[in-house]
Amino acid sequence: MKKILLILIVVMTTISCTNAQEKQFSEEALNGQITTLEGNEIAFRDILEQHKGKTILIEVWASWCSDCVKAMPKLKEIQKENPDVAYVFISMDKSFEKWNEGIKKHEVEGDHYWVNDEKGMKGSFGQSIDLDWIPRYIVVNKEGSVDLYRAIEKDFDKITKALKQ
């Protein structure tokens, strides 16, 4: 009986940690350098600061990601329903050129940034936001707190709810 109880406790702890939602970004994430469309470096903190006072929907994606492309129609629907939200797209594409081609090809509207790290999702910025899947969505509220830290393409109901709060 003790073994069963111990196993149950371990399983419940693992599940609760997996579903944990951060309420703020780490200093490592905030200091992370990301590339602009113009080829300049900008700290993630400064990107968030540009949208201070607005709800922000961040999508981490890549043009080669089939799940990202499949989710785009739903994301565009959310954009139409929530025009006051700031949309920030952070690409994990392998090259600056592929990233730019992907933005044009998929007609992605919003603010665009590229993580210039040869390790991609496993690089320092990806690790700093606990990136383990793309597309990944993060909702930051008007006060600058994270309302939804970990959402994927199957979580659009959660995303919509977080945007309405």
Task: Record keyword descriptors for this entry.
single chain, 165 residues, alpha/beta, seven-stranded mixed sheet, 42% helix
Describe this structure in words.
- 42% of the residues lie in helices and 21% in strands.
- The chain has 165 residues and is α/β, with parallel strands linked by helices.
- Strands 2-1-5-4-3-6-7 form a 7-stranded mixed beta sheet.
- A hairpin with a 5-residue loop joins strand 6 (136-140) and strand 7.
- It is globular, with a radius of gyration of 17 Å.
- Mean pLDDT is 89; it is low at 10-19.
Spell out the helices and strands N to C: HHEEHEHEHEHEEH
Sequence of strands across the biggest β-sheet: 2-1-5-4-3-6-7
Helix content: 40-55%
Distance linking N and C termini:
44 Å
Class from secondary-structure proportions: alpha/beta
Query: Can you give the mean pLDDT?
Result: 89
Instruction: Tell me the overall shape.
Output: globular
Low-confidence stretches: 10-19
Strand content: 15-25%
Instruction: State the helix count.
Output: 7
Report the major sheet: 7 strands, mixed
Beta strands, count: 7
Q: Please give the radius of gyration in angstroms.
A: 17 Å
